[in-house]
Specification:
Rossmann fold; binds guanosine-5',3'-tetraphosphate; 524 residues; alpha+beta; 3 domains; Alpha-Beta Plaits
């Protein structure tokens, strides 16, 4: 591989921001893009509230709800690095896509609201990152508001998530009294309010300021110094290797809204975040990003971006080599070779045609129904597959049937394709073979209903059966039908495996107490 291409690949930093809704992910993304020069004002990018999507020709649902149904990719250059941020939708638009997006990144940034601490969606997304062993960087946000004590937040991080942490910086006061941060990593104090004395104050060897400043006299500064001393003595050491292995999360404090601490975060993050990483193949090998041949995998398919053309976009994470527009790509699963003449990359919300992309980048390929989620793509003849994408344990379930029984053929065809594509999970009841669909987020059902009608001409009746705790069974042979009941429903998944759908955690525990010999497990 040529040196120039190697350098290109080594400059890529591909990550997602994981957070509970309202922690400040959109605000942070805007500020990051602002630093990257991708937008002129640190204004709205996603147009969540400005209604920018009203002019987009994306799915009807997106228009109605003013949100992006599937994750998009934002790209900018900073400090000699090319940064790819993959959006992970929250709120009701949370779906399996959100989880799968985390399969395509090399690191994650976890945003936490300093007043709320660790919230449920953060835990779910964190678990998926942890499973992959990717580095996680934490940004504790909204320091311009009164929040919880920083030491308490650090403790919660370690206890609830079970990850060790290292505070890269420490807040000096908060809310109205937020004076800045004590930057342990860069050995300086960054002032929130600057009045002609510069933004940074150097910290000397003893931890005191190199030059005198009025901030030193404040109780907030003294408190910060005390806390930092405590962390120096009793806290974890900074260990780059452990950060890379995802065992230690560097923690930053700041305020995305007032743009405080964001640049320092970005600079430090880029210093330690990994360049594109190798990926495992299904046969136990691995593919290195610097391998000459272009390879990648599809982690998401976005349908109907233009309803007039019924087109779909398959999002590919490039694993190795270089992608050029016009190249031939092979999908070994089918196996079929296509000439790629149209590909897109996302910069803010403008679709741009991409001519060249390298390992670490995400490209969107126009799809007329050939690709599936999880597909491996190569530029050569190699016949191999990347490790399959994991299946996630759904939490929401519905029963679904065709409105018009005369059209059940369309109904079954539509379901089969949408299930294969990974849009939704398929289950059926044991004897009556009623169709049950599972999802991790409500929006998946809405998208399903919409697509069935528009793409497969099949109107469906959806009956909500609510939240369930799904468990697969190691020793299926020992399961008896007498073990089932209204609180423990037994169904089959698309691979004919038996699955218990428990009413809630209590029903699950009750079942396990009663039948300790049945070995249950969950997917991710
Ligand atoms: P999300 O994408 O994670 O859902 O969060 P988003 O950035 O939309 O932020 C949620 C709310 O929190 C917004 O307020 C936003 O302005 C606010 N916020 C984000 N970062 C900070 C921060 O550092 N400090 C403070 N004080 N607030 C912050 P909103 O009232 O819901 O919306 P808006 O009308 O202000 O846009």
């Amino acid at each position: 591989m040529e040196d120039q291409l190697k350098q290109e690949i080594a400059s890529r930093r591909t990550f997602a921001i994981i957070s509970h809704p309202d922690a400040g992910k959109t605000t942070m993304t805007e500020k990051l893009l602002f630093f990257g020069g991708a937008i002129r004002d640190a204004g709205t990018v996603k147009g969540k509230k400005s209604g920018k999507f009203a002019t987009s020709d994306w799915m009807e649902i997106e228009k109605q709800r003013g949100i992006s149904v599937t994750s998009s990719v934002l790209q900018f250059d900073f400090d000699g690095k090319r940064v790819n941020i993959l959006d992970t939708p929250g709120h009701e638009d949370f779906s399996e896509d959100t989880y799968r997006t985390l399969m395509a990144v090399d690191s994650a940034v976890m945003m936490i609201d300093s007043a709320k601490g660790i919230e449920p969606q953060t835990i779910k997304l964190f678990k998926v990152c942890r499973m992959r062993g990717i580095p996680i960087f934490t940004f504790i946000n909204k320091l311009d508001r009164q929040g919880r004590e920083p030491l308490e937040l650090m403790e919660e991080l370690e206890e609830v998530l079970g990850i060790e942490s290292y505070a890269m910086n420490w807040p000096i006061g908060m809310g109205k009294e937020f004076m800045g941060i004590y930057d342990r990593h860069n050995r300086r104090v960054e002032l929130a309010r600057t009045e002609g004395d510069g933004r940074y104050l150097e910290v000397g060897k003893d931890g005191d300021l190199a030059q005198s400043h009025s901030i030193q006299e404040t109780s907030y500064y003294q408190q910060a110094l005390e806390d930092v001393m405590l962390l120096d003595e009793a806290g974890n050491d900074f260990d780059e290797e452990r950060v890379r292995r995802g065992e230690l999360t560097p923690v930053f404090f700041g305020s995305a809204l007032t743009n405080f601490g964001v640049q320092t975060f970005l600079e430090t993050y880029l210093q330690f975040a990994p360049a594109p990483q190798p990926r495992n193949t299904a046969d136990g090998g691995s593919v290195n990003p610097y391998d000459d041949e272009f390879t990648g995998f599809i982690f998401k398919i976005q349908a109907n971006m233009n309803p007039a053309h019924r087109d779909r976009i398959a999002f590919v994470r490039i694993v190795s080599g270089e992608f050029d527009r016009g190249m031939q790509v092979t999908v070994p699963r089918i196996p079929k070779t296509f000439k790629v003449s149209q590909s897109t990359q996302f910069l803010a919300d403008d679709r741009e045609t991409v001519n060249m992309a390298v390992a670490g980048d995400i490209i969107g390929l126009y799809d007329t129904g050939n690709y599936q989620i999880g597909d491996t793509i190569t530029g050569g003849k190699a016949n191999f597959a990347f490790e399959p994408l994991p299946q996630f344990t759904p939490e929401l379930f519905v029963k679904v049937s065709p409105k018009n029984v005369m059209k059940s053929k369309h109904f079954h065809k539509g379901i089969l394709q949408l299930v294969q594509e990974g849009a939704i999970q398929y289950y059926k009841t044991l004897h009556t073979e009623e169709v049950i669909l599972g999802a991790v987020g409500q929006l998946q059902f809405e998208v399903f209903e919409h697509r069935m009608k528009n793409e497969y001409n099949s109107e469906v009746v959806i009956q909500h059966i609510g939240q369930k705790v799904a468990r697969w069974i190691e020793n299926e042979g020992d399961v008896k039908e007498s073990m089932t009941g209204p609180r423990a429903m037994l169904v089959k998944d698309r691979y004919e495996n038996l699955v218990f759908l428990f009413e809630n955690d209590f029903a699950l525990r009750w079942f396990q107490d009663k039948h300790p010999d049945i070995r249950l497990y969950s997917l991710l």
